[in-house]
Amino acid sequence: MSPTTALAPAVPEPSPADLARVGEIQRALLRLDWATDAVRAVLEQALERSYGLGVHTLEDAARRAGSRAEVLQTVLGALLVARLEDGRPLLDVFAAADAGLSPDEAAMVRGWSEVVEAPFRVGRVEGRAWELENLLDGLTYRVWMGVAQDEAPPAHLMARLVPLGPDWVCIGHAVPHPAGARARLLVVAARLAILRPALLLRNPAYLDQARRCQRVHHELFVEFFGGDEVVLAHGEFTRRLQEFIALQASRAVEGRAAAQHALGVPLRVLARARSVGLVSTAEAGVTFLPNYAAFLAGFGAEASAAEQALVLQYLRTPALDLLPFDRAAGRDAAAVSRTLARLLERPDLDWARDRDALRREFKRVGAVRPSVYVLPPLLQAHVDGIPERNAPCPCGSGRKYKACCGR
Ligand SMILES: [Zn+2]
Fold this sequence. Notes:
Layout (H helix, E strand, L loop, with lengths): L15 H16 L5 H15 L6 H8 L2 H14 L8 H7 L6 H9 L4 E11 L2 E6 L5 E5 L11 E9 L2 E11 L4 H14 L8 H22 L3 E5 L3 H14 L5 E2 L1 H5 L3 H6 L2 E7 L3 E6 L1 H6 L7 H11 L7 H21 L7 H12 L9 E2 L3 H4 L27
Parallel strand pairs: 3-5
Antiparallel strand pairs: 1-2, 1-4, 2-3, 4-5, 6-8, 7-10, 8-9
């Protein structure tokens, strides 16, 4: 699934029937007859965010946007990346629903959560195989289009790509842009990168840079809080977090923290919690854990029913990795084994032996990735708009912007 630079196919190319099937599945996804109430609630929130307060239905949104097709693109975007409150991707709900998918197709649909959304420069086009250069992550992708191109291809495309075997396929509407749109599309890319930093981290060079920054952020955390883990009481959390953010700013640490986005716990939920645990690692940065003190108490001999229920809730939240359990086991592994054995009614459960199996059973998290990211200079220069035409090009070529990336 790595982006490719050569057009020569290493594997047989997908047949027109394969590509048509991708289109059918996409239409089934958008039909929404599989959507549970929980899925619909998430989509309503997405519509409200995009089209304004009080907009809850496709019809409302289409009236507000003046285009039903545009609204369907918004819905598709949410279906690809949004999750239920427990962290389960909406795509998982669709893949598990009775939508007539084969097991292979269901696996493919789950993989669509890796969607690459960006403006692209169109490179070589050979029949249905297009070479697209991503203006956001700088990588080149080989993309199979549903139909062969008759006319000259556009200079740029705003598109969503999802994995298809080792290559990619375009999903939803790809919007063409002329050559002169490059500067404007770089602004779009910069804003998209801030909203969804994971899109940048597909590039191994940016991932390495983010990893280096993450270690610096982690060391600063340890310096400020006096350790890699801290439990803050209600009322203390917001103030201490602000102090920490101010310290980061005063040291001009490279990289933006995206931890809150990564975990998906809204700040207002944390501010309401009785306690908040902050656990920092050099690999993934800060994880915020609401009611962490009560969670830890859940492993004690005197644990209340509410504290034990919280332990189960932490376990059954797919988006939250086992980090808090690892920390609890670091304090008393036998207590973690005992508590989980009782709560899950598995008398033989042993934390050290069963940890990985529990992770597979309860968690849906990918590889551990940094939660800080750094915008490449070219995108940083486009965050607030198009740079001045006669200024040196922010890509560092030494030429004027208008004669280089702003062309
Ligand atoms: Zn340039």
